[in-house]
Amino acid sequence: MKPVIVAEKPSQAKAYAEAFKSVKRDGYIEVAPDAIFPEGAYITWGIGHLVELKEPKAYDPKWARWSLAALPILPDTYQFQVARGKAQQFGIIKKLIFQTDTVINACDVDREGSNIFYSIYYQTGAKNKKIKRLWINSLEADEVRKGFQELRDNQQDLLLYQEAKARQISDWLVGMNGSRLYSLLLQEKGIREVFAIGRVQTPTVFLIYQREKEIEAFVPEPFYEIEGIFDAEKGRYKGKAKLRAKERKEAEELLAKHTIAAKEEGVVTQVKTTEKRTPPPQLHSLSTLQAAANRKWKYSPAKVLSVMQGLYEKKLVSYPRTDTQHITPGEFSYLAGQVEKYQKLIDMPFPIASKAPKKRFVDSSKVQEHYAIIPTKTIPTARKLEGLAKDERNLYEEVLRTTLAMFHKDYRYAETKVTTDVKGLAFFTTGKTELEKGWKELFPPAKEAKAEPSLPELREQERVKSKVDIKEGMTMPPKPYTEGQLIAMMKTCGKFVEDVEDTEILKEIEGLGTEATRSGIIETIKRHEYISVSKNIVSITEKGRILCQSIEGNLLSSPSMTAKWETYLKKIGRGEGSAEVFLATIGKFIQKLLDEVPGQMQKNGLPAQLAMPNAKDEIAPCPRCKTGMIVSRRGSYNCTEHANGCKQSFPAIFLKKRLTAKQIEYLCTKGKTPVIKGFVSKNGKKFNAKLVLEDGKLKMEF
Question: Cα dihedral sign for 445, 447, 448, 451?
Answer without folding.
Answer: positive
